[in-house]
Amino acid sequence: MTETPRGGPRPLIWVVGTILFVVAWFLAYGQLVPVSEWVVGQLPLAPGSGAYEAIKFFIYDTPKVLMLLTLVVFAMGMIRSFFSPERTRALLAGRAEGLGNVAAASLGIFTPFCSCSAVPLFVGFVSAGVPLGVTFSFLIAAPMINEVALGLLLALLGWKVALTYLGFGLAVAILSGWVIGRLHLEHWLQDWVRNVRASAIDLPPENLTIVDRIQAGIEAVKDIVGRVWIWIIVGIAAGAFIHGYVPADLLASIMGKDTWWSVPAAVLIGIPMYSNAAGIIPVVEALLGKGAALGTVLAFMMSVIALSFPEMIILRKVLNLKLIAVFVGVVATGILSVGFLFNLLFT
Amino acid sequence: MKDVKVLGPGCKRCQTTEDMVKSEAARLGVPVVVEKITDYAAIAGYGIVSTPGIVIDGKVVHAGGLPKSEDLAKWLAA
């Protein structure tokens, strides 16, 4: 074979380059606190004033969030190159419910697809014999457990919260899909969806090299971080304002853990909102600092990203209204439970 | 004359893919007819789950995300 391998002839350079980048990342990350402290120290503002607190929050958070997000998205992009949707579908086809829901939700974390692919994906899964409930577990997990949300939670609230979000997000996707499967709603699909017969795909095997996977990581960073960074900065600015100027007792009385109705209210407000996690999570951090309850704000965040109107309008093409209502109801119930549980667990 | 189909509901990536196919074909001097398939049933019929997808002379060569131009060149030249 005289053909050079895909991605260029020098895999070693790519691998070493990536390792050097990660080392440099960690070195820079370690300097963030002293550097931002020094910058804040130069400010001509009285420590403790609203403006000082707001600007300090902004200067601490912006580089930290962007750096952690870049690393998480890069890692996710590399992992995702192992899970094409076609391969995922083949893995899930003919799976029984139960274990199938678990597999579907887990694959939902890693399988990449853009939102305009939701319908082809849904049709492709159902027509290939993936059970409806298992398909839903996948469709719920994919947006709910979002790499941007995960990276931001890790950056702002620590690994415990990030891991719990992952766990509960999976649980909601698995249980919601299982419930939808148990309800046997296949006759609520649009007629044409049931009639589609997918041909078996004959894509050539991918044989991705390590260089391809590193490049996939870089592509993911360019695409995702390139798209959301502005929202993150807007979100951090909003968070900084809350941090510096909103009185704590006001927030605690509306979103505090003693206010039982705040969780359902957060879900109701979250559903019609269409935003990405990027702008919301920095606000979440500031709200938490002011006494808002973790379960309430996470329920809000999950309903914003997992139950959005545009997504439902897209799904309307394949599901009838009753099935969409069931989908929203089941997922909202799951998110509610997560909210109440978090408020109980994290005191 | 190569028959190229770009499959996708019409998001930005699908448009970019179509443009890439056309410019790559022009660069290589390969005559092509590019057709867009936006019908979901037809897309699923090809077995493609992730869009944009590319079908050349009836054969699926790509699914999901933007193609690499070096790959495009290879498929068009084949």
TrEMBL record, chain A:
Entries under Pfam families matching the protein: ArsP_1
Localization, UniProt: Cell membrane
Transmembrane regions listed in the UniProt entry: 12-32, 65-83, 104-126, 132-156, 163-181, 228-248, 260-281, 287-309, 321-346
Keyword Cell cycle recorded: no
Membrane topology: Multi-pass membrane protein
Keywords, comma-separated and alphabetical: Cell membrane, Membrane, Transmembrane, Transmembrane helix
Keyword Glycoprotein: no
Region forming the signal peptide: none
One term under GO cellular component: plasma membrane
Similarity field: Belongs to the UPF0718 family.
Name by which UniProt lists this protein: Permease
Source species of the chain: Phreatobacter aquaticus
Automatic annotation (TrEMBL), chain B:
Domain Thioredoxin-like fold: 3-76
InterPro entries noted in UniProt: Thioredoxin-like_fold, Thioredoxin-like_sf, THIRX-like_proc
Entry annotated with the keyword Disulfide bond: yes
Cystine crosslinks: C11-C14
Keywords on record: Disulfide bond, Redox-active center
Pfam families xrefs: Thioredoxin_3
Active site: C11, C14
Family annotation (PANTHER family): THIOREDOXIN
Protein name per its UniProtKB record: Thioredoxin family protein
